[in-house]
Amino acid sequence: MTKTDERGMASFVGLCALGMLLIFGMTLLYTVRSSVEKAGMFQNEKMLRQIAENRLEQLSVQMEQDADFCRTLEDGEAKQLDGIEFQGVQTASYIRKAGERIFLLVRAEKQHKKSGRVLYMRVRGYLTKKTTEGGERYVWSGRLP
C-alpha cells in the first residue's frame, strides 16, 4: 500500500463518522420537536377541559338555584342555552331533560393557529330531582364519563 491509499481511507472513515454524527443530530432534533408539539397539544387539551368543566359547574349552580326553569322543561326536550367566548375559546352549553334527571353538556373549542384544525373538549354532568322541605328541586349529582 502506498501513502495515498492510506490517506484516502482515513478521509473515508472521517466522512463516515461525520455522516453518523449528522444522522444522530437530525434524530435528536426530530425527537425534541415532536416532544414540544405533543406538550403543546397536551396544554391545549388541559386548557379546553378546564374551561369546559368551569362552565359546567357554573351551569349546575344556575340550574340548582333556578328551580322554575327546571320545572318548565318538558321531558325529552333538548335545547342550546348559550355560547360564551373565554380567552379565545368558544363554549356552547346544551341541556336535556330525561325523566327525573337533567343532563348538561358543555363543548369548548378552539382553532389551532398553525394547522387550522378545530380542537374541542366535551364534558357532561347531570342533576337529579330531589324532594326537600322547600319543595322539589334539582341538585347536582356528578359528571358523566
Q: H/E series, N to C?
A: HHEEEEE
Query: How far is the N terminus from the C terminus?
Result: 75 Å
**Range of strand content:** 35-45%
Major beta-sheet overview:
5 strands, antiparallel
Q: How many beta strands in the DSSP annotation? A: 5
Strand order of the largest sheet: 1-2-3-4-5
Radius of gyration: 29 Å
- Which of globular, elongated, flat, extended, rod-shaped describes the shape? rod-shaped
What is the number of helices? 2
- State the helical fraction: 40-55%
Structural class: alpha+beta
Stretches where pLDDT falls below 50 for ≥5 residues?
none
Name the average pLDDT.
Answer: 87
Write structural notes for this entry.
The longest helix is centred in the N-terminal third of the chain and has 63 residues, at 3-65. The mean pLDDT is 87. This protein starts with a helix and ends with a strand. The chain has 145 residues and is an alpha+beta fold. The protein has 2 helices and 5 strands; from the N terminus they run ααβββββ. It has a 5-stranded antiparallel sheet with strand order 1-2-3-4-5. It is rod-shaped, with a radius of gyration of 29 Å.
